[in-house]
Write a structure and sequence with these properties.
Three copies of one chain form a homotrimer. Chain A is about 50% helix and about 10% strand. By secondary structure, the first copy, chain A, is an alpha/beta fold. Chain A has two domains: about 300 residues, Metal-dependent hydrolases (TIM Barrel), CATH 3.20.20; about 60 residues, no CATH class. In chain A, strands 1-2-3-4-5-6-7 form a seven-stranded parallel sheet. In chain A, helix 13 links the parallel strand 5 and strand 6. In chain A, helix 1 crosses helix 17 and helix 8 packs across helix 10. Chains A and B meet through helix 3 and helix 15 of A and helix 14 and helix 18 of B.
Chain lengths: ~375, ~375, ~375
């Protein structure tokens, strides 16, 4: 049987849990707005070029066009025209519903005012949603509401505990704020107070805006406070927008942190990881509390995502890999993330079956582990 | 249809632009001379072994032998004997002409006295050539001709502007001279003068030779002077000969430089990139002015080059990837670079077509973008 | 012909030399003990999971089960039950004998008291064995027997010369002890004496145990003493257990060491290398005295090992790649290492043959080079 047919049969009927995504844009998007959400760049491409000319752009035209009643590989113009014609609500509904994702763990810390809430996202999809709380976002809200250096630690702990009460997990963007090569030890109360004083100082106060939390002492303090709550802690690792220095997003920089927190038993969820997904696989094998995904990369590498998924499963134990989309803004990304994961894992597994390396039964079991069972176990979600 | 036939049909009739190569050796080469040009090593291989035992060596025997009227996979001895028999002029002509490269952008800063000029190279190939001017080479010629620390900056600016007048682009080997992890800010005039004084100092003067420019302050000064000219600026990145420290050739070290120069609009061309071609793809997606190739690696990885090309097209937008050979000395490298690119991109695209991920029309369009259109747009070359 | 049949025919009759492995456990293993030897982790996996759920676990069930009279893909429980039933001596004999390894170079410096000796290992396999002496182990024995700072250098030199007399090669675990980014220059006698004084100081003496040698000055001293003996020197590089910081195990950190020792002609054997096997391939091409393997990774990546082997042969000259298993404790690892290498190299070569890139004759010759001839040449072993 062809690998595609074997792969499809292995993945048949699998309802996924997306352990890391964002909401969709409820408003209509013009071409520039759409293209900006289909790249990790912070700037438009050069004159005369388009972000549609990328693996992600080709995958959108291939896989999403039919859901909008167009032929596969529809031209970008036609695709966007049809999108406008249907309107954002219908487009969001169609694509989210077709993804076959039953549970969404939604990070609410990135541009929440422009995106659907977890509840809205789930309703569009006909699924369930749980929140993932971003540490730095909570700290910045504490600062915006007003806090003093001596009380910042207590105020943050209270706000985080409150925000986390019904959340499935927590998330840190330390990678963007100070790099993953931070000192893994917990800072002293005195150091935290001093760092808070710098952060909340006169200049910020005068500006009247919530300052951006980038101080490594405070980032570490947030992380150690989060560990206290015992919930799975997600880390952005690997590539993302050009804000971050990719060399400092290598998850291997977390080795000291992982040694320091191993005894706590708190699951550490390494997100994205590309192009360090092999390194992440090593961490997932070496440290009992480490889990990995290649969510963002699956969408952006499009036709190449099967290869990336296969690489990510070299060292990663199969009880340590999770499905995610990291979709933000475009429901195309939720849908494609699911399609490409099914195709990619399916194709890898089918090749191993056809080559006589794996049994079909094992392949189906691993599909279930990565697709939803590992997430259910680690985040304590109810089964479908 | 087989992937090879689909791939060949996608690439059919494509006349390439090689946006980074060197000339060929006009003189006859003995075995040691030939082997030395078929490896990035600076030393002969161990006794009893041959550089022919490599992917590149196998590819030369496979693909170049028939152009010299031999069977594919001819023995190295027979290959070199036939090469001697035909003589360098005929071998250079046959291989260059068969490459299907219409335009050569030739870096003239590496051993120019041993290689054909851009004009000679183009004539052998029946194509066009444009020069790429190497910054460090210009600076070293300025020093050799005589300059003083206070006037070095002006003398270099004048010499570079003169050299660049008819050039298609500029090139830096900062990777070899001080590593890509240089401070990205422009040095002050005073710092440049001081660094020039050290470089041009008594010792160098006494030696009576053009000193090698390795000072990071001067390297940065060269780069910022080059940016003023507005022409595309090529950077050696990734592997090359063992002179450089490969860890410091990771193009991610350029992130600060790319942030600092984004506003200038000067295209930054990351050459080779291997084994950091995925990292380079991220930079090409993240920064509007960044372009990439995997030229050198395509030749040296031979039968594996299709895989390297496919990896390089994971994150790189298709308007940001370029074809190059980085061929130097051996016309085999110009020819093979073209053959392996056609086969490698063709095979990758054919697989995506056969798997239903890409349309054939898109594949043909992307082949044209990478093959010559992106180079034409970025370097302002006339179309074929 | 199918790639598998072509691959099998290329590898037909090849008797391998494993240039880096360890002994097997002569005692019976319970489930926890078996699982601990089937992962690079130092800790058990999370509750409810098993190290059998990994590429290595799947490969054991697939390939080793039939040698214990079970069906391929036997359940872990059944596999371990049958293993207990047969007893360790029979299991060790069956698996080692089936590996088709004629010569074992056995590192005796890791838990020797729990493993078979080189002689015992060879007898179980019906092959030959030679020892590989671990520098740090010898130094720690010297310290345990009693030495003084001023005499340490001489005592170590004498002990190493004695241990190395009949050894095939030497090995360093500098990667684990201080990282590969050590200063490559030889330390002065005075620095060595001072470092030895710190290492052998009162505290260690009071504890009455052989201290662990981690001082970078001493590690460098061991290495330079080893170079004097002229035997091939193996380095752990790339991943391994979580003791080491993987970022500092990147073999590229050895570039300075390789430059400093090139003139000595001592072969430098880079072991494992994953996920830096492409970087290692560059070093093997660039430096005449550098050799590489991907032994450990072949076992742990199981169904993906063909891809890893193919990647490792991009830049590595074919006279510079060696076969190894890095098997330790489980005879499954010796057997699987051989099976997966035969399948993986065979499949890669078969694809290149079928695609018209390599000739079959060349493929068979390269199989022999990697399989045993390169090891015979470098270690001065007698041919089969």
């Amino acid at each position: 049987m062809s690998t595609d047919r074997v792969g499809a049969s292995v993945m048949d009927g699998l309802v996924l849990t997306d352990h890391h995504c964002h909401g969709v844009a409820p408003a209509a998007l013009d071409r520039a707005g759409f293209e900006a959400l289909a790249t990790e760049s912070s700037w438009p491409p050069p004159a005369g070029t388009s972000t549609f000319d990328s693996q992600l752009g080709f995958a959108i035209r291939r896989w999403c066009a039919p859901l909008l009643d167009l032929e596969p590989h529809a031209d970008p113009e036609d695709y966007l025209a049809r999108r406008r014609e249907l309107g954002p609500a219908e487009v969001n509904r169609r694509l989210l519903r077709a993804a076959g994702i039953g549970t969404f763990l939604v990070d609410t810390g990135c541009r929440p005012e422009e995106l659907t809430t977890p509840k809205e996202t789930a309703e569009l999809a006909g699924g369930e949603a749980r929140e993932v709380v971003r540490l730095e976002h909570v700290a910045e809200r504490v600062a915006a509401k007003g806090t003093e250096p001596p009380s910042f630690a207590a105020d943050f702990a209270e706000a985080l505990a409150e925000a986390a009460r019904s959340a499935a997990g927590l998330k840190s963007v330390a990678a963007y704020r100070c790099g993953l090569d931070f000192d893994p030890s917990p800072p002293s109360a005195r150091d935290v107070e001093r760092a808070a004083a710098r952060w909340l100082g006169d200049e910020a106060r005068a500006a009247g805006t919530a300052p951006r939390l980038e101080d490594p002492v405070l980032v570490r303090h947030l992380l150690w406070t989060a560990v206290e709550l015992g919930k799975p802690l997600q880390f952005h690792t690997g590539y993302g927008d050009p804000d971050a220095d990719l060399l400092r997003c290598n998850p291997l920089h977390l080795a000291g942190w992982l040694r320091a927190t191993r005894g706590t038993g708190v699951p550490m969820m390494l997100l994205h990881c590309y192009p360090y997904h092999r390194e992440a696989g090593y961490l997932a094998q070496a440290f009992p509390q480490v889990y990995v995904d290649v969510g963002l990369a699956v969408n952006h590498t499009g036709a190449r995502s099967a290869a990336v998924i296969a690489e990510s499963l070299e060292l990663t134990p199969f009880h340590k890999a999770l499905f995610s989309t990291d979709a933000l803004g475009l429901p195309e990304l939720h849908y494609l993330g699911a399609v490409l994961f099914r195709r990619g894992f399916g194709r890898a597994a089918a090749r191993w079956i056809n080559d006589g390396e794996w049994s079909r039964r094992d392949a189906e079991r691993v599909a279930g582990l990565i697709g939803f069972r590992n997430a259910a176990r680690v985040y304590g979600l109810e089964g479908p």
